[in-house]
Write a structure and sequence with these properties.
Blueprint: H1 15-26, H2 28-34, H3 52-64, H4 67-72, E1 90-93, E2 109-112, E3 118-120, E4 125-132, E5 138-143, E6 149-155, E7 157-158, E8 165-166, E9 171-174, E10 185-191, E11 199-200, H5 202-207
Antiparallel strand pairs: 1-2, 2-10, 3-9, 4-5, 4-8, 5-6, 6-10, 7-9, 10-11
Bound molecules: zinc ion (ZN).
Zinc ion binds at residues 46, 48, 93, 106, 108, 110, 187.
Amino acid sequence: MTTHMDRPPETGTTRRDALGIAMALLGGAFSVGMAPSADPRTDDSCLIGYDAEFEDALAEADEQIPPDEGRLGQGGLPGVFALPLRRGYRVTARYGVRGNWQAGHHTGIDLAVPRGTPVYAVSAGTVVLAQWSGDYGNAVTVRMPDGHYAVYGHLNRIRTRNGARISAGARIADSGSTGRATGPHLHLEIRARRPYGTDVNPVSYLARRGVRLL
Ligand SMILES: [Zn+2]
């Protein structure tokens, strides 16, 4: 169980986030009641669902960026991919497990690391949205050269900005537990297209590109 004494006061704390903290402090028994029903985990739950505010903001921001920019961004070396974390992590929820998520399954993979762990971009691309993102908490969404999107959620601190062109391996954030999460972890989601529900398995996606998450 983590403590939250070291939690910095900044970055978009909401009542939902506060609820998450309370749940984490109260421990597993309580968080089980709040977690998706088919989800076996206890003290580190990811409750991300369809969040209209985030999806609308993402669509609007994405449409401001001409399609070619994302694909030809500097450092865009297509084919170069990287791990999102460089320290050991524990998988607390795999991609695709069934549950009460809006999509019917977990849309990303949860990699548990202590709050403040550096998070790196898995691919080059253009940062479409780097801001408070509802269920995803503080999140960074990157349009990648192949047209896929990577969403990094529950971040404690964002270290990039909207419109930035980034390379694979660029440090984009510090991990955390913002948004609908009851413990510190990185939620990494890969979407084939922009909309919620077009997610693909991040483990296979990265494995096909030479990066092993598991
Ligand atoms: Zn998750």
